[in-house]
Amino acid sequence: MMKPLTAALVAGGVLVSTAGAFSLRPAWFKNDDKVAAASTVAPAAANTSAAAAATVPAVPVPMLAPSVPNYRAIVKQAGPAVVGVTVEGMHKATAEESGLPPGAENDPFFQFFRGLPGFQGRGGRGGLPSVPFKGQGSGFIISSDGLILTNAHVVREAKNVTVKLSDRREFSAKVLGSDTTTDIAVLRIDAKDLPTVRLGDPQALEVGDPVLAIGSPFGFEQTATQGIVSAKGRSLPGDAVVPFIQTDAAVNPGNSGGPLFDGNGSVVGINAQIYSQSGGYMGLSFAIPINVALKVKDQIVAHGKAQHARLGVTVQELNQALSESFGLPRPGGALVSNVAPSSAAAAAGLKSGDVIASVNGQAIDHSGELSSIIGMSAPGEHVKLKVWRDRSWHELEAKLGSAEEPGKQIADKDGAAEPGSLGLALRQLTPQERRQVHVDQGMVVEDVGGPAARAGIEPGDVLLAINGKPVQSIDTVKSVLQSKPKSVALLVQRDGDKIFVPVNLG
Asked: CA–CA separation, 292 vs 502, rounded Å?
């Protein structure tokens, strides 16, 4: 299974490479002859050198005790708890799968194909057809009664999920729930006395520590690859909530959802993505910390879904120039570029230009850390924010809102049949939808009637602006309609294109 993020981030990449034999003589080996020669100097010279050296105080060099993990023991002990996950289902076909040129679905002339056989889309008006698919991923057993963790993108759109154990037994699995925000899914199989993994602490990991990945890349079961921790707390495009563990362990298609072990054989992460400019594995793998996964798992097991908090700000990274302009001694924190109306941030008094330096005493060094802290908090939780504003520090308290997808909201108070009404039912974009359509704000048209329908607005369109005002919430639309305008101009995004649609409200 592969999870698209950007052109460069994919879940489980492709490794196609060969390794040639080579020898490397480190520079310090080149001094061996000199060292040997120095040992043959005359005793007098040696004594003179020793006396001179005695006048220089010795600086102790710390020695690191070698720590080589027993990978053989880790695989033998934990391997039986690693499973293969096979999925089947239906998904919307790509242009290539439908026999069209690549990117044809985004072509403005694609609308003329609508209504032809094989192009049944939303509302029966067109689009690409749904086709069957099969996929492969990995997972691991965390409880002996059949509870399994994997990636949400592994089981996305799946109708049938099959789990294959290391002893070749196969079970039909039930998806208890999945969370696209963190890319975590929880499965259950009807079995007992199963082998389980030992869970570790990702906070104890340090850059340079050895790690081991086990999974089913390309369907090759029980494949082990090793590497080191390359970085911690990585924030990736579209996945700002998760502080990823970066490693150089080889991860390929089919590894998604498999465990990442530390040198002691404890699971510290779930392998999810790689970075690649060619589609091939390039030494950059990313794993979801296991403490994040377990927090999501607990919510899914208890409630069938996970909830994430929302502050309601758009933030950006501070560089040296911005830091100096705001009077900060160095770059750090999260610079607030926009505050959503009617959000927790707005209620707390946050403003554009504020720099959030800490949350509940936890320092924010990079802007992505704020998204991670807030996203893993619970809706309704109170947080204390340390904010830099007007060259001085301020303390604010915010009651966090919910990032859960809201329900359908009617833009017209009096309904589509009344004069001056628009005829739209809207809802907020989900985080996944925002990534897919590449927009930061806007609302999805759920239902349409009256003037908007007559103007050509369709369900599935993304309403970006009304009369030039960016649509951040339903309140933006209602505020424009309160003046009872005779017409409005709607900026909508449809099939990757942005178009203005005039709507006569008379």
From this structure: 46
User: Does residue 394 carry a catalytic annotation?
Assistant: no
User: Phi-psi region for residue 99, left (φ > 0), alpha (ψ -120 to 50) or beta?
Assistant: left
Side-by-side strand order, sheet with 82-92: 170-172, 158-164, 82-92, 130-143, 147-151, 184-188, 174-179
Full-model pTM: 0.66
Q: What is the pLDDT of residues 303-324, one digit of tens each?
A: 998 999 999 998 888 889 998 8
183 catalytic, yes or no? yes
Contact (Cβ atoms closer than 8 angstroms) between residue 396 and residue 350: yes
Read off the tokens for 477.
């639309």
Q: Residue 338: count other Cβ atoms within 10 Å of its Cβ.
A: 15
- Tell me the C-alpha distance between 136 and 45, whole Å: 71
- CB-CB contact of 118 with 129 (8 Å): yes
| 153 in active site | yes
Burial class (CB in 10 A: 0-12, 13-18, 19+), 44: exposed
The residue from 138, 153, 230, 421 that is catalytic is 153
pLDDT at residue 381 greater than cutoff 60:
yes
Q: Is the dihedral of CA 433, 434, 439, 444 positive or negative?
A: positive
34-68 confidence digits (pLDDT tens) = 333 333 333 444 444 444 444 555 556 565 555 68
The amino acid at residue 362 is: Q
Cα separation, 4 vs 87, in Å, equals: 18
Catalytic site residue from 138, 216, 235, 256: 256
